[in-house]
């Protein structure tokens, strides 16, 4: 019973644990990097606690979060309408769009065990029908906002190091630093999605739901293993 | 999940805005330097400088810091107009010059003083570390 519980709930917790391990690793490496700059500038090293409260750490974390949530937001929303023949990441070619209430089990077509707001009508059904995209999109926007605020402070710290004037938040939004941090993350996320969508047409990972079954033809679309 | 993410974002925002140490202390250190130079108190002026800046003053003048700093040509004291603190660095703008400071365990120390703006390029300073 207990073993079954762990087996049935292993994917999410494993990724949460990997996230925390990586975040700790980033904090340790970032702290060492920050302190090497401090020494170069003739300033004393700072404690790990001070570094964790710094804008430098905050912007490094936030810039990666925003791009990941943007990636999933776009993937979730665009795959409603956009298709890719042969890809398990695409819906079947004859089902683009938001689909009928019967196919989505909402309103009058809701099942006994459907979520409560799927059985409702009006704004509740509309909100719940888009709740995954809304949540991912909201976290993306908040993370991007956090990146811009922390990025302003981190950029200004660099400006003062180099004996230059700090900038305001609105000025920072026009700085190359902000767009370089933003776009370098966006390009890698878009490449990863494009690779996943296209490579999974021809390549297989036996047993993975992200792949088609090994023997499934390349042309078959919307089938996961 | 969403709630904890929001909390972290709020913490990030607060972190980005939190100045340490205080603006007031940075302005005090900048004033201490210019007042000491005006009074001819080289020892007090050097005590307000960061170690690298002190070394640089001695090296360029070829004499001890206390003697060199009073002859360096720093402008006289003037009211503080603006203080900006970002992380381990601060900028104090007075009526006569701009001063850059770094955070040390014992408080702020002047890294560069007598600085004049050169637009997009780094400030030109009378006294500065390497």
Q: Which features would summarize this protein structure in a list?
A:
heterodimer; A: mainly alpha; 10 helices; B: 130 residues; alpha+beta; Nuclear Transport Factor 2, Chain: A; globular
Q: Would you give an account of this structure?
A:
The complex is a heterodimer of chains A (225) and B (130). In chain A, 65% of the residues lie in helices and 0% in strands. With 225 residues, chain A is mainly alpha-helical. Chain A has 2 domains: 1-53; 57-94 and 131-225, no CATH class. The two termini of chain A are 26 Å apart. The mean pLDDT of chain A is 95. Chain B has helices at 2-17, 23-39, 42-47, 51-61, 65-70, and strands spanning 80-86, 89-94, 98-104, 107-118, 121-128. Chain B has a single domain, classed as Nuclear Transport Factor 2, Chain: A. Chain B is 43% helix and 31% strand. A 5-stranded antiparallel sheet of chain B has the order 1-2-3-4-5. The termini of chain B are far apart. Chain B is an alpha+beta fold. The interface between A and B is large, with 37 and 39 residues. Chain A: The chain crosses the membrane at residues 127-146.
In short:
Chain A is mainly α. Chain A has helices spanning 2-8, 11-40, 48-52, 55-81, 101-104, 116-119, 123-129, 131-161, 169-172, 176-202.
Please give the structural blueprint:
The complex is a heterodimer of chains A (225) and B (130).
Chain A: H1 2-8, H2 11-40, H3 48-52, H4 55-81, H5 101-104, H6 116-119, H7 123-129, H8 131-161, H9 169-172, H10 176-202
Helix pairs in contact in A: 4-8, 4-10
Chain B: H1 2-17, H2 23-39, H3 42-47, H4 51-61, H5 65-70, E1 80-86, E2 89-94, E3 98-104, E4 107-118, E5 121-128
Antiparallel strand pairs in B: 1-2, 2-3, 3-4, 4-5
Shape descriptor of chain A reads: elongated
Reported for the largest beta sheet of chain B, the result is: 5 strands, antiparallel
The separation of the N and C termini of chain B measures 48 Å
Oligomer state of the chains in this structure: heterodimer
* Tally of contiguous helical segments of chain B: 5
Keywords (chain A): Membrane, Transmembrane, Transmembrane helix
Pfam family, one (chain A): DUF6766
Transmembrane segments (chain A): 127-146
Region (Disordered) (chain A): 89-111
